[in-house]
Design a protein that fits this description.
heterodimer; A: mainly alpha; B: 294 residues; mainly alpha; two-stranded antiparallel ribbon
Chain lengths: 190, 294
């Protein structure tokens, strides 16, 4: 029984994204209950540090640094960015004042979504599509019949491959908005 | 192509920040009095430096701070700002926290003001006109500290005016439970002013309330008077049947049952010497009555 690509990988994608939001809301709720709102403000520092550390993988991938296992660094990239984003979400809270920080938050969520797309949807779904194709061919189906059977999965995977084109510019845009926010905070420091 | 998108979006964001700083960067609404500079961040902020006192006092004359309201009318507040020469304005005042001026006072410390002001709380604070505060004969600082107004750390009942001390209900609510619901006053018959929850009264030292006497207080204690009682508030005991039971023992004083009975168990009597005395008193009373008749 072959599960569809969408069922097998979109579900964990949604789970990880949802878990990030739920954890952030939970921490924010606890801080409000304990009247420790100032901690939310300071969580921006560890959050930013975690996200910056997650970019070690990007440096390794572009051979700016030469040490470290790319596989381990990729895992670190995924989890550090995810955890850092939780802290930044708590830092942001649900306050609708200045637009710039909110643009930064929106871009951060888009970036995390884009990263999870790479982690779950593209990488794993490509592997699954290949495995299904091999299994059908081993079962004696022709190329044409195999293509018919896997039509929707192939379309899904092709769409997701466009992720590579958008992930890096999205990340750069998020970085620029975050930097503008940090600079303006320092600029207008009390 | 992607680079072009990123550059274009960045330029748009920068343009919006420059043109509409109060929308793009403002972390919260400015106080009413600062609304006229809401689009000019640098009216108060010195870039990468913070908010300097010079910026504040270029508009606010220190010696007059507090003397006038925004609408120009005078106030009666103590002008203590004129003695503050070394403090940063921003150490007490914040902004971007809403239009209400009261929101902008974030970290006021009483240590900033002189002793003569500290010792005259009413120069800044208004005495609450609630039931509690109008009954006190003492100074504010007897109960309140300068750390936190609600930090009441030294309340004593001696602070209350003597004629108000009996009116417990001015400050305390009747618990409203089964025991207290019928009681309107005389709290101090059971409670002391040392601790509200610790009642000094134990009913079993007077009379043990068994299952036959599990009834409302007012059955025995009528007229809200807990210093007296009657055993004839229920259908079980009547003057007639109690008299007929006690006559054979020569007892005819049946008003103070508890002087002999410590529970509903008629064999569970108080000490016999006491009872003997009671009986003798009863007999003496009878003899006196007979003498009177003579």
């Amino acid at each position: 029984m072959h599960k569809s690509v969408a069922f097998k990988y979109i579900l964990p994608f949604v789970q990880w994204f949802g878990l990030m939001v739920v954890i952030a809301i939970f921490i924010d709720y606890i801080l409000h209950r304990l009247d420790l709102l100032s901690i939310g403000y300071w969580l921006s520092y560890p959050g930013t540090i975690l996200i910056i550390l997650s970019f070690i993988y990007s440096l390794r991938k572009r051979k700016i640094i030469e040490r470290g296992s790319p596989k381990k660094l990729l895992a670190m990239h995924e989890y550090l960015a995810w955890a850092g984003s939780i802290l930044i979400l708590v830092h942001a809270g649900i306050h609708f004042n200045a637009i710039l920080p909110w643009l930064g938050i929106i871009m951060m969520l888009v970036t995390v979504g884009s990263g999870l797309t790479g982690k779950y949807l593209l990488k794993k779904s490509t592997e699954t599509l290949k495995a299904k194709k091999k299994s059908l061919k081993d079962g004696g189906l022709s190329d044409e019949e195999t293509a018919k059977q896997l039509f929707f999965d192939s379309v899904t995977v092709d769409l997701m491959k466009k992720w590579r084109i958008v992930h890096i510019p999205i990340t750069i845009l998020f970085t620029i908005l975050a930097l503008l926010h940090i600079i303006t905070i320092i600029m207008f420091i009390r | 192509m992607n680079k072009v998108y990123v550059i274009v979006v960045t330029i748009i964001v920068l343009g919006l920040m420059y043109s509409y700083p109060h929308i793009m960067l403002n972390p919260g609404e400015l106080v009413n009095g600062h609304q006229n500079v809401k689009t000019d961040c640098f009216a108060c902020h010195k870039p990468f430096w913070g908010i300097s006192n010079e910026k504040c006092i270029s508009c606010h004359i220190v010696s007059e701070i507090g003397s006038k309201r925004i609408d120009g009318t005078n106030t009666k507040k103590i002008l203590f700002h004129k003695s503050l020469t070394t403090q940063e304005c921003s150490s007490c005042h914040a902004d971007h926290v809403g239009t209400n001026p009261l929101n902008s006072i974030s970290k006021f410390s009483h240590e900033l003001v002189s002793d003569d002001i500290i010792n005259n709380c009413n120069s800044c604070h208004v005495t609450p006109v609630d039931n509690k505060h109008t009954k006190y004969k003492t100074e504010c600082k007897s109960c309140h500290t300068t750390k936190k107004w609600n930090d009441i750390n030294a309340f004593k009942h001696e602070f209350i005016l003597e004629n108000e001390l009996q009116n417990c209900n001015t400050c305390h609510n009747n618990p409203g439970d089964e025991v207290h619901s019928g009681i309107a006053e005389n709290c101090n018959a059971c409670h002391s002013t040392i601790k509200w929850k610790t009642s000094t009264f134990d009913h079993s030292t007077k009379f043990i309330l068994d299952s036959d006497h599990n009834t409302k207080c007012i059955t025995c204690h009528t007229n809200n008077n807990y210093k007296t009682y009657t055993c004839y508030g229920c259908h079980e005991h009547t003057v007639g049947n109690i008299l007929s039971e006690h006559n054979e023992e020569g007892i005819n004083n049946i008003d103070n049952c508890v002087s002999c009975h410590k529970s509903a168990n008629e064999k569970d009597m108080k000490d016999e010497n006491n009872n003997k005395n009671k009986n003798e008193n009863n007999r003496n009373d009878d003899e006196d009555d007979e003498d009177d008749d003579d």
